[in-house]
Specification:
This protein has 382 residues and is of the alpha+beta class. It contains 14 helices and 8 strands. Keywords: DNA integration, DNA recombination, DNA-binding.
Amino acid sequence: MIKQYTNSKGTFWEVRHYLGKDSETNKDVRLSKRGFKTKKQAQDYLKQEQYKFDSGLSSPIDKNLTVNQLYQEWLEQYRLDVEESTLRNTETYFKLHILPAFGDIKINQLKTSTIQKEVNVWYRKFQKHRKIFNYLKRLLNYGINMRYLTVNPCDTVIIPKKKLSYNCPTRDRDFYTKEELSMIMLALEEKAPLKWLCFFRLLAYAGLRRGEALGLQWQDISFKECTISVKRALKRRKQGLYIGATKNKPSVRTIDIDQETLAILKKWRTSQQEYFLKLGYNILDSKTFLFRKEKKNFPISDSSPRNFFFKFCQKNGLPYVNIHGFRHTHCSLLFEAGVSMNDVKDRLGHGDIQTTMNVYAHVTPTARKEASQRFAKFMEIR
């Protein structure tokens, strides 16, 4: 199958095709590759690979390929489908964790037992041990798609389920319940600077991505219409931070906000103006960023929210989720409030409904319980 797809970098073509059964292993061999600029390129690639397979010209295993070599090849494919910030994060996981452990090992010599030992080390050291493992598994799946491997040794690795205790209280999920969020917001109101109350209020009550919130200018806030217009985002690449387009086309959106959030925004705007006037800056310009630097009209670092919030939770004994967890919380609680799937998708600017459905699969315990009760009540015979 050859089909077209679109992401933030443009429109491309992908190949997904069943080649046949491997003559040595009798296993199904499937072809999967993305990033072709034209349909003809995709067709030519498919014809070439099918011919090589039918003619027995390609071996299912490249015995000389190391994990690092496979990674370099996979990375060129991966960069076609993701944002620069996502690419940088992925490269970091590989350079810090995966390549030091497995980089020099030939992929056909990589054993499940070897991976299991390293996964256990990751588990004891890192909160995101599962994410590190998933990147390794994804890399080796690419090796299977390219016919360098016949099986993925990650398939039978056991991921420890019991949560370890870290320095900061954590959740067994990446979002807050309604009660937990209320507790967090109350603590922010009472103990945090107004800037951070405003920032986390936008994440929790408008469902903004971190980069979207940091990319907001005062011209994007309509105090009359009670809306926020999301038009840009703060992003990161190797050269540093920059203002760019949102993650995808649906992410450009206008969001209704509640009166209390609006009141906090008004209070923050006044406070910000007064502060900068004392420093000799006139920031009445509508293009002023909500969360700007002191000496330059450019957003604060994208790492600042995490640094503040982690220390804030640690100091006050509060449960911690990562910054993206606030967006996940907003999505989950929208479902709990009875908002439809499509309305949630539009509000959060998801690129496709599958992303929204993935969050729905992890809705709060309250929502799951209410769903079962509603169904039972619906089925009652009167």
